[in-house]
Each structure stands twice: as structure tokens, then as C-alpha cells.
């Protein structure tokens, strides 16, 4: 049986405490009104974030210069216009800066939730494929997926808060966007109102989260029951529910990616987006399996896990990284080449405003795994895999950052206290929940029909 070390437990609790303090600081320092935004822009007038303010001030100078050649009434009207535009701009920036701590929390929350989901999908695939190499890793996978119930509750609460207008992350949830009489009316969003409306959206979320958690609960229950059984009935039950789950997962995962990520940019869509999001969290889940396995091996556990098992996990890390890159390039190239204004604006925004994280994610999620993990020997070296795993996980966090931040904070982004604190909090919670779960059952699924094959897996 695994014992949760006091050092690791303390470390996870410290991460959560520091994270909570940083999250609180992020919300506390977010501007509360337009005056605070004006002061902030003024203090940054020599930096990137002062450009908009400078342009507004320039417009006032132009008004003043041209006013001599215009009538008094026209000048006043022009100044009123400039003032209205200035106020609208400040209001927009206010919403973006108020969104920043919310968006940082959202990125970390969904990222760790989907790591558990990626692991659950990989586990279900192993069950249905009747894979002979992986049963010695099943309890590691079940430990990681134990975060799913906790992550689901926190994420669902976040969605409820969004629906109650505690934040402005989802534009289509704004007041009046579907009302033709409102100044906030948006014709495109109104056309999608039959699908993008809060009651239907939150019900879909509840169904997906409940379905995923039910599979996790019953598959683990059957696996534990199989240890004490005299036949393979529980194993056969797991095979059947895993097959059913994978059908449900493929459908729900695609809709989830539209609902929780793509709808942040409701004017844009991509038919590849569901697969793209899947590849990102799937490789993250597999990488997390490898990282937890290597940690447990270093502490003297998982005696039946050998370098061949580690090598196979590394091959999946490499292969799915290449698959993610294929989808990244396919989505980018087709939209960029077609050059349709409604589609291309998504990438123009990210290339112009998020140039470093946008292309940095490609380097971290493709070039680095390609150069390191293509080598067969490197796939069996612990420190190389740990380094590759850290880079891949950080790279896919940046990937989710790129998907979510442009539509929520625009050009008012930077990786600061809110972002780092959110990562620390959810990382600490993840470690605490996962390693606590690993203490609840033996680390070997001893009565799995393929366990002996898995114990002696070598090539």
C-alpha cells in the first residue's frame, strides 16, 4: 500500500495556501471603476498598455486643432463623440482587467479537470483494447482520475457564477445581446441563441460532468471488486461500460470544447476544434500518468513497472504530441489560406497580441518533444522524461491560455500573480487529491486477466 508522505502532503497544502493568497490578491487589485482604469493607463502611458490612452488623447488634440475652422456646435458634437468613445474604451478595458483574475482561474481550473479527463479516456481505451502492457498502471490512472469529482464540482460552480454575471468571460451571456431593442444586440449571437443560452448550456455541462464521473466511479468499483472475485465478471462489466463510455465521451468532449472554450469567441468556429482540444488534454493526461509513475517508482513502489512500460508511455507522449501538431497546423493553415474575415480574425488576434505564447506553445508542444522523445534511449531515462513531461504540461497550459485569454482579456494580458497563483492552487489540490486516493487501494490490480502479461512486459 502506498503511504502519502508528510513532505509531499505539506508541499501540496503550501501550494494551495500560497495559491489562494495570490488569487485573492488578483481579485483585490483588479480595478473597480473607470477612474482606476484611467490611472492605470496613465501610469503605463510609455508602455504597450498606454497606446490606447495615447490615441484617445491625440484625438482630443486633433479636435482642438480643427475646432478653429468649424462652428461651435460642430466642435461640441465632435468633442462629445470623442468623449463617448473614450468612455466606451475605458469601460471595455475595465471589463477586460476585471476578467483577468477570473480568466486566470478558469484556465487553471479547466486545465487540471481535463488532465483527469485525458487520463480517464486513456484508461477506458486500455480497457476496451484489452491491452496487455498497461494493467500494472491502472491504479495510477485511477488515482489521477480521482481528481475528476473535485474538479467537476469546482468547475460547475465556476460556470454557475458565470451565468449569474459574476464575470464577463462569456460574451453571449451578457445582457441584451439577443434583444434587437438593446444597444448590446449582437445579430450573430442572437442567431445562435437556441443553442447558446444559459439553461441549455448549464444542463449540458451537468450531463457531461455527471456522465464522466459515473463512469469513473463504476469502473474503479469494478476494478477493485475484481481483486477479490473468483471469476472475471467484474472485468467483463468494465469492458462493456468502457465501450459505452467512449461513445459518450467522443460526443460530449466535442460539445464540451464548443461550450466551454470556443463559445468564449462566439463569432468564430472551427470544425476541427473538438479534436484539437482533445489532443491537448489527452497528451497532458498521458504525460501526468508518466510523471506520477516515475515519482512512485523513485519512492520504491510499482515494483512490476519496468523501463518497457515507461518507454510505452513516452511513445504515447511523443505520438500524441505529433498528432496535436497535425491538428494545430491543419486548423491554422486551412483558416489562414481561406482568409475568410469571420475565421481569420481568431488567428490575427493571437499572432498580433499573443505572439510569444502562440508560437511558444508550438515549440514546447511539438519541437521539444520531437527533438527529445524521438530518441529511443531517451524514452527510458527518468530525468529526460521528467524534463520532457514538465515542458509538455506547461506547453499545454499555454495552449489553453491561448484559447481562452484573447476572448476574455484581449490585449490586457500578462502572466502575473493571478495566473501563477491559480496554477499553484490547482496543482496543490491535484497533488493532495491524487496521492490521497492512491493510499486507498493496493497499487496493483492483482486479479486483472492480463496482469501477468503486464508484469512480464518486455521488448
Uncertain parts: 47-67
Oligomer kind: single chain
Which bin fits the share of residues in helices? over 70%
How far the N terminus sits from the C terminus, by CA atoms, comes to 28 Å
Can you count the beta strands? 0
Q: Rg, please?
A: 25 Å
Number of helices in the DSSP assignment: 16
Strand content bin: under 5%
Structural class: mainly alpha
- Strand and helix order: HHHHHHHHHHHHHHHH
Q: What is the overall pLDDT average? A: 89
Report the principal-axis shape. Answer: elongated
- Sheet with most strands: none
List the helices and strands and how they pair.
Elements lengths: L5 H24 L4 H10 L7 H16 L5 H58 L8 H8 L1 H17 L23 H5 L6 H31 L4 H28 L12 H26 L8 H32 L2 H13 L1 H19 L8 H28 L7 H22 L12 H5 L4
Write up what this structure looks like.
75% of the residues lie in helices and 0% in strands. It is built from 16 helices and no strands. The chain has helices spanning 6-29, 34-43, 51-66, 72-129, 138-145, 147-163, 187-191, 198-228, 233-260, 273-298, 307-338, 341-353, 355-373, 382-409, 417-438, 451-455. The longest helix has 58 residues, at 72-129. The protein starts with 5 loop residues before the first helix and ends with a helix. The model is unreliable at 47-67 (pLDDT under 50).
Question: What keywords describe this structure?
Answer:
single chain, 459 residues, mainly alpha, 16 helices, elongated
Quickly describe the structure.
The protein is mostly helical and 459 residues long. It has helices spanning 6-29, 34-43, 51-66, 72-129, 138-145, 147-163, 187-191, 198-228, 233-260, 273-298, 307-338, 341-353, 355-373, 382-409, 417-438, 451-455.
Amino acid at each position: 500500500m502506498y503511504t502519502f508522505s508528510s513532505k509531499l502532503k505539506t508541499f501540496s497544502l503550501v501550494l494551495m495556501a500560497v495559491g489562494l493568497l495570490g488569487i485573492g490578491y488578483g481579485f483585490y487589485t483588479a480595478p473597480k471603476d473607470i477612474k482606476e482604469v484611467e490611472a492605470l493607463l496613465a501610469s503605463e502611458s510609455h508602455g504597450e498598455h498606454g497606446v490606447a490612452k495615447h490615441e484617445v488623447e491625440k484625438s482630443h488634440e486633433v479636435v482642438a486643432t480643427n475646432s478653429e475652422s468649424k462652428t461651435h456646435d460642430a466642435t461640441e458634437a465632435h468633442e462629445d463623440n470623442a468623449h463617448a468613445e473614450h468612455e466606451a474604451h475605458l469601460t471595455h478595458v475595465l471589463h477586460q482587467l476585471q476578467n483577468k483574475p477570473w480568466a486566470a482561474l478558469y484556465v487553471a481550473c479547466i486545465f487540471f479537470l481535463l488532465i483527469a479527463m485525458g487520463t480517464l479516456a486513456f484508461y477506458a481505451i486500455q480497457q476496451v483494447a484489452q491491452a496487455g502492457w498497461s494493467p500494472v498502471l491502472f491504479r495510477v490512472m485511477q488515482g489521477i482520475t480521482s481528481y475528476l469529482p473535485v474538479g467537476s464540482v469546482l468547475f460547475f460552480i465556476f460556470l454557475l457564477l458565470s451565468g449569474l454575471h459574476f464575470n464577463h468571460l462569456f460574451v453571449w451571456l451578457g445582457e441584451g445581446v439577443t434583444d434587437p431593442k438593446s444597444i448590446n444586440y449582437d445579430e450573430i449571437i442572437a442567431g445562435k441563441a437556441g443553442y447558446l443560452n444559459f439553461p441549455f448550456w448549464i444542463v449540458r455541462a451537468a450531463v457531461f460532468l455527471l456522465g464522466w464521473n459515473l463512469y469513473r466511479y463504476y469502473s474503479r468499483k469494478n476494478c477493485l471488486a475484481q481483486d477479490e472475485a473468483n471469476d472475471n465478471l467484474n472485468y467483463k462489466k468494465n469492458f462493456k461500460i468502457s465501450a459505452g463510455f467512449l461513445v459518450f465521451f467522443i460526443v460530449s468532449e466535442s460539445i464540451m470544447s464548443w461550450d466551454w472554450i470556443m463559445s468564449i469567441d462566439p463569432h468564430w468556429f472551427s470544425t476541427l476544434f473538438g479534436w484539437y482540444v482533445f489532443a491537448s488534454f489527452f497528451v497532458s493526461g498521458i504525460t501526468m500518468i508518466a510523471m506520477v509513475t516515475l515519482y512512485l517508482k523513485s519512492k520504491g513502489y510499482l515494483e512490476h513497472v519496468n523501463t518497457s512500460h515507461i518507454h510505452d508511455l513516452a511513445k504515447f507522449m511523443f505520438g500524441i504530441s505529433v498528432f496535436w501538431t497535425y491538428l494545430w497546423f491543419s486548423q491554422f493553415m486551412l483558416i489562414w489560406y481561406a482568409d475568410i474575415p469571420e475565421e481569420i480574425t481568431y488567428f490575427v488576434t493571437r499572432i498580433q497580441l499573443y505572439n510569444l505564447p502562440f508560437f511558444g506553445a508550438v515549440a514546447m508542444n511539438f519541437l521539444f518533444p520531437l527533438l527529445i522523445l524521438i530518441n529511443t534511449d531517451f524514452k527510458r531515462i527518468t530525468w529526460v522524461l521528467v524534463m520532457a513531461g514538465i515542458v509538455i504540461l506547461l506547453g499545454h497550459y499555454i495552449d489553453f491560455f491561448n484559447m481562452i485569454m484573447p476572448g476574455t482579456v484581449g490585449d490586457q494580458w500578462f502572466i502575473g500573480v493571478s495566473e501563477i497563483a491559480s496554477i499553484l492552487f490547482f496543482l496543490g489540490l491535484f497533488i493532495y487529491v491524487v496521492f490521497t486516493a492512491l493510499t486507498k487501494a493496493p497499487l496493483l490490480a492483482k486479479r486483472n486477466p492480463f496482469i501477468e502479461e503486464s508484469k512480464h512486459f518486455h521488448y
